[in-house]
Structures are given as structure tokens and as C-alpha cells.
Design a protein that fits this description.
The protein contains 8 helices and 14 strands. It is an alpha+beta fold and about 270 residues long. The chain folds into 3 domains: about 80 residues, Arc Repressor Mutant, subunit A; about 40 residues, no CATH class; about 150 residues, Gcn5-related N-acetyltransferase (GNAT) (Aminopeptidase, 3-Layer(aba) Sandwich). The strands form 4 sheets. The protein has a 7-stranded mixed beta sheet. Strand 2 and strand 3 form a beta hairpin. The longest helix has 18 residues.
């Protein structure tokens, strides 16, 4: 048994329920009973669990939604907690004591269905941070295999340049660059300006796991409505991803590859409809 699990079993019934159901819309007496007796392994009768819920309502820990349905409340001991921390890029909150704040606003995107309906905010599966120089090695590891696949779709495998060269030649850092992290590991990145979504690459081991979509949602909150995307002709996976966000081809352009001008290319120019 791990330390955290042991601590949870020793916690009061109310705090077990509070911690477990805090981010859910509501819970039922049946769910509360299953948690306390089966998951937490506490030897108590059903009546005691109900009694602790009712007591928690009086203390402001829980709120009654309907018959047998409750939710974690926003008040404890009758005092409304209104502390709110606004954090810039989400990287370091180590100076904040545990349990000392009620909410954090960061630049992390969160899933939108409940955004305008109150209730809990569901943060995205992947955390997004502004690029830092220490991220560059991982950017290369993400970019290079994904770029090779992109060029193969377009029939241009010989045009590959590693990011260590392409970043300067193609002006990567002239854009705003953000990285997506999963448990502290960079798994994708996006680069954009007000008028253009220029770079989007995802670690191939994380393909079709929502990383690209999270990056897109983040960028679309920050670019102009008429921002454009250029996609190499033949890169159907990229076209499909952008189509999910309302982008369609408005014209085809033929020219040479930026940063590697010996290769002629044709691109789709996409705009959001």
C-alpha cells in the first residue's frame, strides 16, 4: 500500500468523499457508499456514511442537488473561499502551499463544453507552455520523424532537413512557439503569428491521441479569424485535422520549399470558413 493510499484510508469519510468527488458534477449515496466501503476499505455501515454527508451539508462541504444526489460545495465551515491565483505560463507553483488556494487560472486550455455553464472546469489532457530554450532538444526529437512522414506523404522525402537546420532557415522562432507536455515530456509543438498557423508537429508515438487538437484549440484562441495555414499537397492527415476546425482549401499555390529552395512544392492554402 502506497503512502497516498494509506493516507486516504485514514482520512475521515467526509474528506474521502470531498477529495474523490471534487472534480465531478455530483455523486449519489450509492457511489459514496461504494467509495468508502469498497475503494477505501472502511468498515462502516451505510447509515454512518449518510450521516456524514448530511453533517457535511450543514458544514458547507456538500450541497444537495436532488434526492440522494449531492455535490462538493464551495464552502467549508460556512466560510466562502474566494482566493484566486493567476499564473502566467503555468511552469512553477512550488512556492504555493498545498491546499492554500481554491482555483488557478493559467494559460492551459481547457475543454469547452462546460465553459459557459458553471461547474467544474475540465483542463485539457496535455499541458501547454510557452517554449523555452531547454525544450529545443525535444522539439528536434518530435519534429524530425514527423517531418519525414509529412514529406513522404507529399512525395518529397529528399527535401528533409533536421530541425537543427530548418529552425533557422525557416524562421521558427519568428513565431510564437508553444509546447504540449504529457507528464513533463514535450510531445508536440505549435508555432503561429496573428495571421498564420505555421508549424504543428506531434511525437509519432502520441499520434491520434489528441495532442494536435489541443495545440490547435490553444492557437485558435490567439490568432485572427482570417489566419491561414499552408499544407503540402498530399498531406492528407494534416488536411483532415485542420478540417475538424473548419479550415478548407481556398487556393493552391506552387513555388519552392522555404529553407530548401531547390525543391518545387505545391501547397493548399487553408482558411477557416
Amino acid at each position: 500500500m502506497g503512502l497516498e493510499e494509506s493516507s486516504m484510508k485514514k482520512a475521515t469519510i467526509q474528506m474521502n468523499l470531498f477529495d474523490y468527488f471534487y472534480e465531478q458534477d455530483n455523486f449519489t449515496i450509492k457511489e459514496a457508499t461504494e467509495l468508502v466501503k469498497e475503494v477505501r476499505g472502511k468498515r462502516v455501515n451505510d447509515e454512518s456514511i449518510r450521516a456524514r454527508i448530511y453533517e457535511g451539508i450543514d458544514r458547507g462541504i456538500f450541497k444537495r442537488v436532488s434526492r440522494g444526489v449531492y455535490k462538493v460545495g464551495s464552502q467549508i465551515n460556512g466560510t466562502t473561499n474566494q482566493c484566486l491565483l493567476i499564473n502566467g505560463d503555468g511552469r512553477d507553483l512550488s512556492m504555493i502551499k498545498d491546499n492554500s488556494i481554491d482555483g488557478i487560472i493559467t494559460d492551459h486550455p481547457y475543454k469547452l463544453p462546460k465553459q459557459l455553464k458553471g461547474g467544474n472546469r475540465n483542463f485539457a489532457e496535455y499541458e501547454l507552455f510557452k517554449y523555452e530554450e531547454k525544450d529545443f532538444e525535444r522539439l528536434c526529437q518530435v519534429h524530425d520523424p514527423a517531418r519525414k512522414s509529412e514529406l513522404e506523404y507529399a512525395g518529397l522525402p529528399a527535401a528533409f532537413l533536421p530541425l537543427s537546420i530548418a529552425a533557422e532557415r525557416e524562421g521558427l522562432f519568428e513565431y510564437q512557439v508553444y509546447v504540449a507536455e504529457d507528464k513533463g515530456l514535450v510531445v508536440g509543438f505549435i508555432a503561429f503569428s496573428d495571421t498564420e498557423l505555421a508549424w504543428l508537429y506531434v511525437d509519432r508515438s502520441c499520434a491520434r491521441q489528441g495532442v494536435g487538437s489541443e495545440l490547435m484549440r490553444f492557437a485558435l484562441e490567439r490568432v485572427q479569424d482570417d489566419a491561414e495555414i499552408e499544407v503540402l499537397d498530399g498531406n492528407e492527415p494534416a488536411l483532415a485535422l485542420y478540417a475538424k476546425f473548419g479550415f478548407t482549401t481556398v487556393r493552391m499555390v506552387t513555388g519552392v520549399m522555404p529553407g530548401n529552395e531547390s525543391f518545387p512544392v505545391t501547397v493548399h492554402v487553408l482558411e477557416r470558413q
